[in-house]
Write a structure and sequence with these properties.
Layout: H1 3-21, H2 23-26, H3 47-58, E1 70-77, E2 80-86, E3 91-100, E4 106-113
Antiparallel strand pairs: 1-2, 2-3, 3-4
């Protein structure tokens, strides 16, 4: 390949990357739509993911013998749900209720171990 062709190709790729990165500021009238507009019903994350990420802090019992809680099953809808979880040694099931605010932040309002 000729050196001028390679240089031209590198410049073209750099211009495409810069154009994509600054598209909204260069052409505000042609900006891309927000793929997930924030509305009152939009959650920051699904309740199932929130429970999975925070199960150790939500549980009323603590892990045993160096185990770490993980969710084995979860069902949630309409402000209430049931979660089964274990730490490799002991398994638990809990019923919970939750609220979400206008921007989708989740608050667990009750946690009842069966």
């Amino acid at each position: 390949m000729k050196k001028s062709f390679v240089v031209t190709l590198v410049i073209l790729i750099a211009l495409i990357i810069l154009g994509y990165a600054f598209w909204d500021s260069l052409f505000p009238f042609m900006s891309r739509p927000n793929p997930l507009p924030v509305t009152e019903t939009t959650r920051v994350m699904p309740i199932e993911d929130y429970i999975r990420l925070n199960i150790s802090g939500l549980s009323t019992v603590k892990e045993t013998v160096g185990g770490k809680f993980y969710v084995t099953s979860i069902e949630a809808h309409g402000g209430a749900g049931t979660v089964s979880y274990e730490d490799g040694h002991n398994g638990y099931t809990a019923d919970f209720t939750y609220n979400t605010d206008a921007v989708g932040a989740i608050t667990i309002t009750s946690w009842n171990l069966r």
